[in-house]
Amino acid sequence: MPSTDRTPSAGDTPDPWANRGDALARWERRTSGDAAAGTRSGPPRWARLWLPVVLSFLVQVIPALVVTGRARLPIDIAVPIVALALVGPLALIGARRFPGPVVAIATAATAADLLFTPGSGAPYLALAFAVISATVRGARRWAFASIAAGWVVVLVGSATLGVPWHPGRVLLTALGIIVVMLIGEAVRTRGERVAAFQAASKKRREDAAAAERVRIARELHDVLAHSLSQINVQAGMGLHLIDSQPDKAREALGNIKATSKTALDEVRGVLGFLRSEGSVGWGAEENPSEAALVPQADLSRLPSLVKSISTDELSVALHNRLTSEPPPGVQLALYRIAQESLTNVVRHSAATSAEVLLVEHPSDYVLAVTDNGTSTQHRAGTPETSGRGMLGMRERAELLGGHLDAGPTSGGGFSVVATLPRRSGQ
């Protein structure tokens, strides 16, 4: 097989976004506190509450005071004019908690101002803010009903009381009401879109973090399950032979040391690589150069894997018939699937022989791991043997566009067959 020893780059990982999952989660945790405290884009909350109140007061109450003062109107006329101008701005203070009643009060004040007082000539701005607030805060029915009722009352009342209305004023007032309601609808729609975008963005961050956790769990399971199984087997052999064959026991201890060192290096490599990737651009304090990186597992390590699995009780044969070098992501998946399959053979099969076969076709690569195990539990594919390890192997194959088949063979034993496309798009 062509040599594939190399140090992986970030582009070799099967999922380029997965390594950023923890960084995204950290960023979300940093910002979630601000969101819970009410921090959001746009003006602060106090400004959104008090700015309409202040503007309405300046546009309505100040002109009303000026007009009544200059005209020297009697107190019984001046007070209602100023009071009606003041009702709307005061009502807007409660627009956040009671948007429906506020728009009804503002509409009533506007209708009374038009029908019963000479007015200051200033537009009743509080009504516009009340309509927009009610529409945005989910009280659209209040706004529509209040405006419709107020408009009918003004038209009927003006005809009954003989209040003269110029046709142009009627038209402009109607257009103004329509424009205000359209503005309210536009603001409401924009708010819904922003909320939907934020929810989708949060879900993407959560999905990325979840995918990263799954990937870490899969990598650590494959490394630790295999290594601990080997250590367990070698330790049992050493204990069994320590008195009768101390040289064999010493060899088993050496294998335990080598296996544990390899496992530690691979765990450091996985965690170091994730730390260095997650710290880029997210303000992390870790120094990527300090991360302990080891070469990514590939098919060049299969012979060593098979040799470490083989014992006097279990003979493992490797048949590598590949004529080309698969991409790094495919090599990693094939190696981990072979590693997990052989680990299951050691732990569950009670087999005396196993075979690892690698072949390639025009459209895909195929890995087959078979054994002659007699364990009923292993051949039946019970939850113990088809749990996280089997799930991880299946996920690795499917992430690259392939599939995995596992089950008992017709002649006895168990077989795991992974098929990965030659062009996985990774």
Automatic annotation (TrEMBL):
Residues 330-423 form the Histidine kinase/HSP90-like ATPase domain. The keyword Cell membrane does not apply. This is histidine kinase. It catalyses: ATP + protein L-histidine = ADP + protein N-phospho-L-histidine. GO terms for molecular function: kinase activity. It is an enzyme of class 2 (transferase). It comes from Subtercola frigoramans. PANTHER family: NITRATE/NITRITE SENSOR PROTEIN NARX-RELATED, NITRATE_NITRITE SENSOR PROTEIN NARQ. The keyword Membrane applies. Residues 1-20, 402-426 are annotated as: Disordered. The chain crosses the membrane at residues 49-68, 75-95, 115-136, 143-163, 169-187. Keywords: ATP-binding, Kinase, Membrane, Nucleotide-binding, Phosphoprotein, Transferase, Transmembrane, Transmembrane helix, Two-component regulatory system. Pfam families: HATPase_c, HisKA_3. The lineage of its organism: Bacteria, Bacillati, Actinomycetota, Actinomycetes, Micrococcales. Its EC number is 2.7.13.3. Residues 212-277 form the Signal transduction histidine kinase subgroup 3 dimerisation and phosphoacceptor domain.
